[in-house]
Amino acid sequence: MFYREAGQFKTSYAADQQVFPIRQDRIAIVLLLAVAFFVVPVFASEYWMKGIIIPFLIFALAALGLNILTGYAGQLSLGSAAFMAVGAYAAFNFMLRIDGMPLIVAFALGGLSAALVGIAFGLPSLRIKGFYLAVATLAAQFFVVWLLTKVGWFSDNSSSGVITTQAMQIFGYKFETAASKYLLVLSIVVSMAMLAKNMVRGSIGRAWMAVRDMDVAAEVIGIRIMHTKLIAFAVSSFYCGVAGALYAFAYIGTVEPEGFNLDLSFKILFMIIIGGVGSIMGSFLGAAFIVLLPILLDVLVQEFLTSIFPASINSNLQLIVFGGLIIFFLIVEPHGLARLWQIAKEKLRLWPFPH
Amino acid sequence: MQFFIEVLVAGLLSGVLYSLVALGFVLIYKASGVFNFAQGAMVFFAALFFVGFTEVLPRWTGLPVGSSAVFWLAMPLAFFCMVLLAMATERFVLRSLVNQPPITLFMATIGLTYLVEGIAQGVWGANVRGLDLGIEDMPIQWVMDSVGIGVSQFDVFAAGLAAVLVTVLALAFQYTKTGRALRAVADDHQAALSIGIPLQTIWVIVWSVAGFVALVAGLIWGARNGVQFALTFTALKALPVLILGGFTSIPGAILGGLIIGSSEKLAEVYLGEYVGGGIDSWFPYVLALFVLLVRPHGLFGEKHIDRV
Amino acid sequence: MKTRRIGLLVGAALAVGFAQQVLAQAKEQFIGLPSYRVGAYAAGGSGIYGGWIDYMTLVNERDGGINGVKLTWEECETEYNNARGVECYERLKSKGPTGNTVFQPLSTGITYSVIDKAPGDKIPVVTIGYGRTDASDGRVFPWVFPMLTNYWSQNTAKIKFIGMKEGGMDKLKGKKIMNIYHDSAYGKETIPVLDAQAKKYGFTVVHVAVAHPGNEQQSQWLKVRQEKPDWVILRGWGVMNPTALKNAAKIGFPREKIVSVWWSGAEEDAVPAGDAAKGYIAAGFNVGGVNYPVIKAIQDNVYKKNKGNMEDKSRVGSIYYNRGVVHGIITVEAIRNAQEKYGKGKPITGEQMRWSLEHLKIDAKRLKELGAEGFMPDLNVTCLDHEGSGKVKFQQWDGKQWKVISDWVDSDQSIVRPMIEESAAKYAKEKNITPRDCSKES
């Protein structure tokens, strides 16, 4: 009833090809952005912004990057955390060693450094496929973390390899409050998400999907496999690199190479699988699931179960529920939350009619 | 030269231990097409249940603590728990995800990892326990006396155990009816179903066998490092072995293990000092990567022919 | 339908949480506990937080709180993960009538992640025996307290102990010490201070890294066999420790010559190694054992009433458990100290806690009153020196438990303090912080 498209006629190709062809969708997105930009910074508590929404946005960006590589281009990668680390450390070093480096440029350069590393470790993908490639990207993961720990230059020769990021400021405006950091992260993430959406709808995105579906056929029809795969690695690592820089500058503040370990790579992989591979919306949904669910479980458990069960059982219970929910969602909808959302929208288009 | 041989032998023997863990992966991948990420957690689960039973059995049955009776009673009990785990996995996870793409199954095993870890530590607690298999981790005296090389008798015992296990499994896969059924299922689930192979029973069997392998690996590694959560990290050591040997080959797992183990140790000792050490975190992976560049399916893996 | 039910549940949870806060009594002191009870470090976490909670329960039960103000706490599972640690910090920040009193994450990674936030939120960060070493310079880090002893101090104490065992610091000349360390930020921290001491005393030090998680160390210990050092300093964490001991036994290196840091010196590190651990020496700022009046008090007042936090009662008195008790003692004494100045019987704020921590003195007399004589070292925190002690004891594993084999050994501040001040000054310059002038503060 609400979602009917009756009366919405397109009179130009451009109108037909827009990202959100249905008017209700456009209104919803504008509302969502308005709430995100104007309502949340004013009404959300500092805990929510600093502890939940900012990490959600940052991980959504990283998940977006991995989704481009794994979901759209079909190259399974387990090294996303390493690319985040490269982005973080590169941005830190650019800010440190070049006086007067603007913040956004430092982030972009961090992303570019990550992209270069991504291309280097993406070269094997020309030969190796599937799970073998995944385990090969693990080489990137471990090597990068080792390198950042070993070579003191990256961490400005601190004895422990830990870097403390500089304060963020753009044209003299200092980003110190939670709301300002949130808005900065939100702007960067929204613009990069829009960029990603346009990329996957364009010719490069189609080339990625062709390579994912059957790369031999793609090569036959003239898609340059090497270019396509390497661009996928580059773009994906760029996104992960910027996410890593944001993680270091706007969220944690002080990072060590160990913080970008294999666990984080797996977390990002979970996000795209739960959220839906090959879907921009899925990256956000998956990030929300993986970031929010453990916190929700912990809050519920600490509120309700501390008096009933001893603390160790509570913590293990969280793990069990988390694992169980992952399996549950995979059984219910193997294509992820994005597909569930799509089904919901399709049902909404018919509502209140059943079919 | 002596030192070189010592490092080499130590590497080969520890490589066999890696292949023990890799074996569980290969079994499950061969027979159900699932890359079981939870194998590391299963090693931990099995070892923890075993040690837990050795602690609890004296209270239930009155047998003396630490006696061999408790030891030999705890083993089938722990194995029984692994079978229960296999049955539960098959019933709730695999059955609902038949013929889904491999990435979905892989993800489901990741969820399984959390579940298994949570259950194991929830039931038995977070205490770190020692595991004593009665064989000392000390150099064999006559080898030390004759050639001056330290070869741990525990390592040799573990290698022998692994060799026996591998031979038995390889023969079973080749020559028994169940083995053939397992291979048929690995090829194509639905085709196997259509000719009457009881898919679900086969899966329970294969996961139970993998569980048994996990138990053996858990005992060996638990005796080496203590039964604690870090046992789950043994899976990470097994992954390069899998790449080298191919995901579907049992002898490949052993050979891959030998190569990875020895190269890792030699690299750490001889190359490590030039770059500051600690390279055994990434060296096996980089080595496997280079092997893959030459042979994209590992040394013994099945070649996947892409048809357009 | 399902979503509605879930929504109702979540709404109910939030509502209850809200209500609880509103109904919270005014005479309560809230302590946030960012604990970790799952994962690889669960054994340590459950022990330390268990001991800490038990001590606070003891103060509540036996003494009725601190001058009538009862201690309340809430745990938040960090899984030893930095991002979760930050979320827990934010979540626990404003709970309780005066907010979170103090934040003790028991993880160096999480410490680093909250150091920048703590001054703004006015919550002191106490890191007993770990954390950011250069925060010992309180002029640059007014809100961070690496109390009792930091990694550099204990390293000098270890060299002093080795010197004692060799028969004098001059006998160290020409000896070889190998530093087997966990290849992480934590492990690398003591490399500079060891190099400095090697130069001062004339011994050679060889650093050997062990990749995380450290469950395979054969190559490293074969190197030890090749180098034949006189002593080995083990700087491990988790599974690296028993693996190291087993490998040492394999190559025949005497465990009596292995001295380790306190994070390698608990029962969980020695027991899995079995016989290989016998004779192994570890430093510690607390000792193990139940024969201390404070532990006995806990057993009488807490466990007899079934309010103990440890499910496995045999862990009471273990090293990690006692470490938790030390955390409890310091927290409670600091609150008591603050109440002396700011008003007895009232809950104190984070700022008042910070002042109290900076002026915290627990001398031998007070330790005896607390029943902790010999249990932990005396403490004297000042604005300049947030460490306050630097003393450690050395214990040896005899196969069943840790036996104390030395008295409190001091650190060598002549080496450590200049390095701390240099590192802190660098941090101050990077962050544009003007160091405080301690003489001007009360």
Describe the fold and architecture.
The complex is a heterotrimer of chains A (355), B (308) and C (442). By secondary structure, chain A is mainly α. Chain A is built from 14 helices and four strands. With 308 residues, chain B is an all-alpha fold. Chain B has one domain. In chain B, 74% of the residues lie in helices and 0% in strands. Chain B has twelve helices and no strands. Chain B has helices at 2-32, 39-61, 68-94, 102-124, 141-147, 153-175, 177-187, 189-194, 199-225, 234-245, 250-275, 283-294. The longest helix of chain B is centred in the N-terminal third of the chain and has 31 residues, at 2-32. Chain B starts with a helix and ends in a 14-residue tail after the last helix. Chain C is built from 16 helices and 13 strands. In chain C, helix 11 links the parallel strand 8 and strand 9 (281-284). In chain C, helix 9 packs across helix 10 and helix 13 packs across helix 14 (350-358). The chains are: A mainly alpha (355), B mainly alpha (308), C alpha/beta (442). At the A-B interface, helix 6, helix 9, helix 11 and helix 13 of A face helix 4, helix 10 and helix 12 of B.
Descriptors:
heterotrimer; A: 355 residues; mainly alpha; two-stranded antiparallel ribbon; two-stranded antiparallel sheet; C: 442 residues; alpha/beta; Rossmann fold; 2 domains; 7-stranded mixed beta sheet; two-stranded parallel sheet; 16 helices; 13% strand; globular
Query: How are the strands of the largest sheet of chain C arranged?
Result: 6-5-7-8-9-12-13
Q: How large is the share of residues in beta strands of chain C?
A: 5-15%
Sheet having the most strands of chain C: 7 strands, mixed
SSE succession of chain A: HHHHHHEEEHHHHEHHHH
Query: What ranges of chain C have pLDDT less than 50 throughout 5 or more consecutive residues?
Result: 19-24
Number of helices of chain C: 16
Using the 3D structure, state the CATH architecture of the largest domain in chain C. Answer: 3-Layer(aba) Sandwich
Q: Which chain pair shows the most residues in contact?
A: A-B, 46 and 52 residues
Strand content of chain A: under 5%
Describe the sheet with the most strands of chain A. Answer: 2 strands, antiparallel
Please estimate the helix content of chain A: over 70%
The SSE order of chain C reads HEHEHHHEEHEHHEHEHEHEHHHEHEEEH
Write the CATH fold name of the largest domain in chain C.
Answer: Rossmann fold
Rounded mean pLDDT of chain C is: 86
Helix segment tally of chain A = 14
Report the radius of gyration of chain C as a whole number of Å: 22 Å
Q: Compute the gyration radius of chain A: what is it?
A: 21 Å
Report the oligomer: heterotrimer
- Label the structural class of chain A: mainly alpha
Identify the strand order in the major beta sheet of chain A. Answer: 1-4
What general outline of chain A do the C-alpha atoms trace? globular
